[in-house]
Design goal:
It is a single chain. The chain is of the alpha/beta class. The protein has three domains: 218 residues, Rossmann fold (3-Layer(aba) Sandwich); 69 residues, no CATH class; 164 residues, Glycogen Phosphorylase B (Rossmann fold, 3-Layer(aba) Sandwich), CATH 3.40.50.2000. The chain is 37% helix and 12% strand. The chain contains 17 helices and 13 strands. Strands 3-2-1-4-5-6-13 form a seven-stranded mixed β-sheet, sandwiched between helices. It has a six-stranded parallel β-sheet with strand order 9-8-7-10-11-12, sandwiched between helices. Helix 1 crosses helix 17. The model has no long low-confidence stretch (mean pLDDT 92).
C-alpha cells in the first residue's frame, strides 16, 4: 500500500479516497484548508494556513545542507512573491524574514515527507505551505499530482504534475481524445455565434454569488469583526473568537507570522475592509481615467492582463509572471505605428477579492504608460470586440489566448498553457520569438488551430463544478479515481516530471 499525503481536500473526498482505494493507499497525512475535518485517528491532521504561518514547524531537526540550499535557492523569488501576498500593507515582512520563513517551511516538509510515497492535491500549489511542499517533492522525487486551474474549453479539467510541463500527464499517449474534439467544436461554435464570446464558468460563478451584493458584503464585514459569529448563533453553536483574526492569513505587523498579534485586532477589521473597498473603487477610477477610445488605433496588439495576485499566474507562470517585463519585451519588438492595447482584468477591481490593492503601486498604470507605445482600454469592453480589431493578442498565460486563436488571431504567451501546441500560438522561449510573432501578425498570416494538434489524451475530467467551492460528490469520485490513475502513469513518465 502506498503512503499518501492528501492536501486541501474536504472530508467527503477523504472518505471517497478511502472507499475507492482502500486496498491501494494508506493516507498518512491530511492537510486541510478551512474548518477542521474528522478523520481516522491514525491520520495526522495539519492545517494548511497554520503551516503557512509557521505554527508548529520548528520542532523538526534541521535537514537543509549545502545541496538542499543550492536547489531551493533557485525558487526563492517565486516563493517571496507568494508570501508577500499575505503582507497586506507591504511592511510586515523584510526580505530576510521571508527567506527565513521559506527555508523553515522547506525544512518542515523535508522531515514530514520522508515516508510518503505520493502527494494528491485538490488545487495548484499556490499558498506558502503548498508551494514549499511541492518544491520538496520535486527535490526528493516524490510524485505530486494536482488539479490544474486551467479550464479547457470552459468544460474540462486535467491533472498536472509540473508547472513547466503543464500537459505532461494529459498528453502522455500522443493521441487526441474524442471528448476533447467535441469540446473544441462546441467552444468554437459558441465563441463565433455569441456577441461577446464565451462567458467562463469562473465569471458566471462570481456574478451569481450572493456575497457580491452590497448588503451581503456589509453583513459579512460586520460579522467578521465581532467576537461571536452571527451564523453560529443561528446554528446554536456559539463559539467565541479571539481578539485577533487568527483564522485569516493576513499579516499587518512585524511580529512573527505565527504570533496571533501579527493579524488584525478584530474590531478594526471592519474599518480595514471598508478602507480596502474604497481603495478598489479609486483604483478602478484611476485606471479608467487613463483609458482612451481604441477604435482610433490603426494597428495594435491586445494585451489582456490577468488578475494579480492569482494562482493562475502565481506560481504557475514561474519566471514569466511579470506583466511589466512582458510589456517591455513586446514594445521592444514593435515597429513604429504599432501599439499595445492594455485591457485590465475586470476581476482586478472586484469587491469580493479584498486586500490586493497594495500588490501594485498606486501609480502602477502610469508607470506602465511610461514604457511607451501602451494605450489603455476600459476593463468592461467585450474582449471579443477588442480581439477582432487587433492584429494579434498577448497574455501571460490567460485563456484569452484560446479566444484569439478561435477568432483568427495569433497570440503571444509568456508561460505554459494547455493550448501551446496550436498553430498560431507563440510561447516565448527565445529572444526572437516575439519579433517573429509580431511580423506574422503584421503580415496578417492567419493561424490554423486544429484540435488534433493538441494531444489531449487522458487524465482529464468533465465535472459539474470547477473548483473546491463548486465540486459535487460525483466530481470528487471522478477526481479520486483520476488521481490514482495519474499516479500510476506518472511513475512511467520521463524525468521532466521532476522539473518544477
Amino acid at each position: 500500500m502506498k503512503k499518501i499525503l492528501v492536501e486541501r481536500f474536504p472530508s467527503i473526498a477523504i472518505d471517497i479516497f478511502q472507499q475507492q482505494l482502500k486496498n491501494l493507499i494508506d493516507i498518512k497525512i491530511v492537510v486541510y484548508n478551512g474548518e477542521k475535518i474528522a478523520v481516522n485517528q491514525n491520520i495526522e491532521l495539519l492545517n494548511s494556513l497554520s503551516i503557512s504561518k509557521g505554527i508548529g514547524i520548528d520542532s523538526c531537526p534541521w535537514s537543509i545542507g549545502y545541496i538542499e540550499q543550492r536547489y531551493f535557492s533557485a525558487h526563492e523569488g517565486v516563493f517571496l512573491s507568494i508570501l508577500s501576498r499575505y503582507d497586506i500593507y507591504k511592511k510586515a515582512f523584510t526580505t530576510e524574514e521571508m527567506l527565513d520563513h521559506y527555508y523553515r517551511l522547506v525544512n518542515f516538509w523535508i522531515n514530514k515527507t520522508k515516508n510518503i510515497d505520493a502527494v494528491f492535491s485538490l488545487d495548484i500549489p499556490h499558498v506558502p505551505s503548498s508551494f514549499a511542499l511541492y518544491l520538496v517533492t520535486k527535490f526528493l522525487k516524490i510524485p505530486f499530482i494536482y488539479i490544474d486551474s486551467a479550464l479547457v474549453y470552459n468544460k474540462l479539467q486535467y491533472l498536472g504534475c509540473s508547472f513547466k510541463h503543464r500537459m505532461l500527464l494529459a498528453e502522455n499517449e500522443q493521441l487526441t481524445a474524442k471528448e476533447f474534439l467535441t469540446a473544441h467544436y462546441d467552444f468554437y461554435t459558441e465563441y463565433n455565434s455569441a456577441d461577446q464570446g464565451v462567458v467562463s464558468k469562473y465569471v458566471t460563478y462570481l456574478e451569481s454569488r450572493v456575497e457580491r451584493l452590497w448588503w451581503s458584503m456589509l453583513v459579512q464585514d460586520i460579522n467578521s469583526s465581532l467576537p461571536i459569529s452571527i451564523k453560529s448563533i443561528f446554528n446554536g453553536n456559539i463559539k467565541l473568537r479571539g481578539l485577533y483574526t487568527t483564522e485569516l492569513g493576513w499579516k499587518i505587523s512585524r511580529r512573527r507570522w505565527d504570533d496571533p498579534r501579527s493579524g488584525f485586532l478584530r474590531p478594526f477589521l471592519f474599518f480595514a475592509k471598508l478602507q480596502e473597498r474604497i481603495k478598489i473603487l479609486f483604483s478602478k477610477i484611476r485606471y479608467r481615467r487613463l483609458c482612451t477610445n481604441h477604435k482610433k488605433l490603426n494597428s495594435y496588439i491586445l494585451f489582456a492582463a490577468t488578475t494579480e495576485p492569482e494562482c493562475a499566474t502565481l506560481p504557475t507562470a514561474l519566471g514569466g509572471r511579470s506583466i511589466a517585463i512582458a510589456l517591455r519585451r513586446i514594445v521592444e519588438a514593435l515597429p513604429d505605428g504599432c501599439t499595445v492595447l492594455y485591457k485590465g482584468h475586470p476581476g482586478q477591481f472586484e469587491q469580493q477579492v479584498l486586500f490586493t490593492t497594495e500588490w501594485k503601486s498606486k501609480y502602477y498604470y502610469e508607470d506602465l504608460q511610461k514604457i511607451g507605445k501602451i494605450i489603455f482600454v476600459r476593463d468592461d469592453i467585450p474582449t471579443k470586440d477588442l480581439i477582432e480589431g487587433s492584429i494579434g493578442v498577448a497574455t501571460i498565460n490567460g485563456t484569452i489566448g484560446l479566444e484569439a486563436l478561435m477568432g483568427g488571431r495569433r497570440c503571444i504567451t509568456f508561460a505554459p498553457q494547455w493550448y501551446d501546441d496550436f498553430d498560431g500560438l507563440h510561447c516565448v522561449k527565445s529572444g526572437s520569438d516575439i519579433s517573429d510573432a509580431v511580423k506574422l501578425m503584421l503580415d496578417k498570416v492567419s493561424p490554423n488551430p486544429q484540435p488534433n494538434q493538441i494531444k489531449f489524451s487522458k487524465h482529464f475530467v468533465d465535472m459539474d463544478g470547477y473548483n473546491n467551492a463548486t465540486y459535487t460528490k460525483e466530481d470528487f469520485e471522478k477526481i479520486c479515481a483520476g488521481m490514482w490513475g495519474a499516479y500510476n502513469d506518472f511513475l512511467e513518465i520521463d524525468d521532466r516530471k521532476w522539473e518544477v
